[in-house]
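Protocol step 4 of 6: record predicted structures for both targets in the notebook before any analysis. Target 1:
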Amino acid sequence: MRTQEQIDEIISALEKDYPLAECSLEFERDYELLFSVRLAAQCTDERVNMITPALFGRFPTLEAFAGADVGEVEEYIHSCGFFRSKARDIVLCAQALISRHGGRVPDTMEELLKLPGVGRKTANLILGDVFGQPSYVVDTHCIRLTNRIGIVENIKDPAKIEAELRKLLPPEKSGDFCHRMVLHGRAVCPARAPKCEICSIALFCEQNI
């Protein structure tokens, strides 16, 4: 396990590498981010960003999504995989947002997790990016990198990694740190052929110890 001083060094290095720690999904409304994250499951953000302009154009309001035919939504999202379950969840989620929350995305983990298709990763992203709350988005990049650089030790369960990060990361830096895990995982430290020679945090990597 890394010391707090080492974790602070890792945070600082990644801040220099990725000063803009932003979600790569494109959206204008909070519910659009919610739906985009659902679409991104087992799919790339790049693909989702190709799909959503037409999808959000066809269904320009939350009410339009709530009244949508699931089959028609499927046609718009077909290329992002698992389109049937995703289309169903999006329509049901829109209906739930209107009936339970007056058309607004809730700002608590408890209420977000009650929405169709929303798990802890999605809920954390919404809490951080929409509401500015401390958030701990544990995706495949975060799982891989936190293990590689010794922030956690041989933990693959996202919920357990989230619990560890809550103890180790300054709350005000948590959301940006998780975004930087994604950016670093894509640009420098993919699962295969990591570019260790240009990695600013290679010093902490378990592969180099």
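Target 2:
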Amino acid sequence: MKHKTIFSVEELRHRSQKIRNINIEHKASLTVLDKFALWITEHVGSMGFFMLVFLWTLLWLGWNTLAPARLKFDPFPAFVLWLFISNMIQLFLMPLIMIGQNLQSKHSELRAEADFEINTKAEAEIETILMHLENQNEIILKILDRLEKNESK
């Protein structure tokens, strides 16, 4: 069985560090480009962005399929310009989204480390409290024994 270190209340107070706010620390460490990548990651992964791309595609393909021949600017069925623009959007968004996901992963790891620190601190505090309660129980039992002995006399 592993022995756990028990601290006195004074030692716990002395060892106690201010709890870090990882969210604020992480946000402060981000560069402007990091913030931009996170913004892109959060917004591209939304229903609003999906609807924007879906409507743009419907309008583009619908116009170039159904409009009069003289008004079409991207001929059916190839839609070369639409494919080129779509591919360029994908090529630019893919690395930005990956950068944003890496930043989110880093933030998640920092939060996990902070949670571990807090849990470790809480465990030491709980062990100390339990030890003190156990000592108080022993003292109370000794007092009760003395009282019983005094009453018996």
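Step 5 preliminary note on target 2. Residues 30-152 form one domain. The chain has a mean pLDDT of 89.
Proceed to step 6 after PI sign-off.
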